Amino acid sequence: MAPSIWWIRRDIRLTDNPALHAALANGDGVIPLFILDPKLWRGRWFSQRRGNFLFSNLKSLDTELRKRGSQLIIRQGQPKQQLSALVQKFEVNAIFSEEDLTPYARERDSQIAETLPLNLVGNTSLHYPSSILKNDGTPYKVYTPFMRRWKEKPPPTPFDILSAPNHIPTPKGIASQPLPEISYNSDKTGFPPGEKTAQEILAAFADGPHAPIFSYQESQNRPDLNSTSKLSPYFRFGLISIRQAVTTAFSAIQAAKNDNQRNSAETWLNELIWREFFNYILYHYPNSLHQSFRKEFRDLPWINDEEDFSAWKAGRTGFPMVDAAMRQLVDTGWMHNRTRMVTASFLVKNLLIDWRWGEAWFMKNLIDGDPAANNGGWQWVAGTGTDAAPYFRIFNPITQGQKFDPSGKYIRRWVPELHSVPDRYIHTPWKMSPSEQQSAKCLIGTDYPEQIIDLQFSRQRTLDAYQKARS
DNA sequence: TTTTGAGTTGTTCGA
DNA sequence: GTCGAACAACTCAAA
Predict the structure, then answer these.
(1) Any domain includes A172
(2) CA distance A99 to A121
(3) CATH number at residue A406
(4) Share of chain A above pLDDT 90, in %
(5) Is the pLDDT of residue A469 over 90?
(6) pLDDT value of residue A334
(7) Diameter of chain A by CA atoms?
(8) Residue A118 CA to B3 C1' — how many Å?
(9) Is A45 designated active site?
(10) How far, in Å, is the CA of A323 from the C1' of nucleotide B13?
């Protein structure tokens, strides 16, 4: 007997898992292994919440494995040591895993591959980063041409999707360590664990003639509507394959009955390609994890006021759209994409706080927190990243609220003290007269904070600072 | 090599 | 209220 190890990292699923299939095809049984790497779980981006979601999913995977004659083996410690020990003890001749494209993972894997039979099969993007390059052989730095080239590559078809194996033979008697204690409440987060859940969410989003994917173009920016796929935490931990999602998007584009439906499905596909793009950027430019992608913006005159930062984190800035979103983040571990941009812009371009501070807070709190997407998004908003768009794009949280949460439904859901504020003041509660504040049971400065900053002034201050940095 | 066209997501001002 | 221009030139990608 020479079993293979299926080393699970960010691909916690049985469906469409090429690494698992390769391990099975190698013969003589499979050891499904997850290693809790203290480097990752005590690092600067450690997140108890994301950890709990991960552990819940591992538990769920273990249940599915046990139905198939197998079980999940958990080890704690340095991956190389843990793998070596198992390889020796069980005479393992091959380790199979999905490739993780983040800098830490690539370094770790290349070290392991020096002494152990590690085979990387598939990866966290659909198209491998080095397979999409400009005609001159260098990587793209702009999304749109990248996206066009990406779409020129042949898409996967439904026939490519590998089904979950019915039986996974696993040697008996392998010691497994217990998972850390879990306190994950999916009622609170809205993200039940398990790959089955991920499949159901994708189906609910994209199956049938009236599926949300067909109105995505109009609704994607509305945090007051439940209109996005909300699949991000599932992509983050590979509970569903990106290949399956892309296949589903292409099927929807085919099935669309009119231009509007087609554009909507295409818009969702483009969002998946954004995910690919940020994986790609981090692969080619790993330094952008620690510093501005654009050199000219590495020394912006940040103010970094701790009190402002605390108010932002707590959702007590006095700007309802910002506060609603920041409280949604802390309460649930997720935030709508539109408000990610609004809150990030407010932190960086109104408060002049280093985007890395915001990036770290998001990583601490987001269930879907992923270095590539989070860093890419923050640098995009800060204007320091891979985007030649004008630096004077500064979101106005009031205008954004009026546009994308017109009735204030989103705000009222997350900022209860604004519940009885009339619609016409919901984005500008400080404009209420004292008697209006009284009847709304919302005294500004007492029940709800005053604005912590003047928008006009801070906008101009940032424009000046960025302009100076450029010249 | 040079040239040309294009660039996710915005805001404000003034006609 | 609506609409187009200005913001300020720059970088990127491809012909």
Answers:
(1) no
(2) 6
(3) 1.10.579.10
(4) 80
(5) no
(6) 97
(7) 81
(8) 49
(9) no
(10) 29
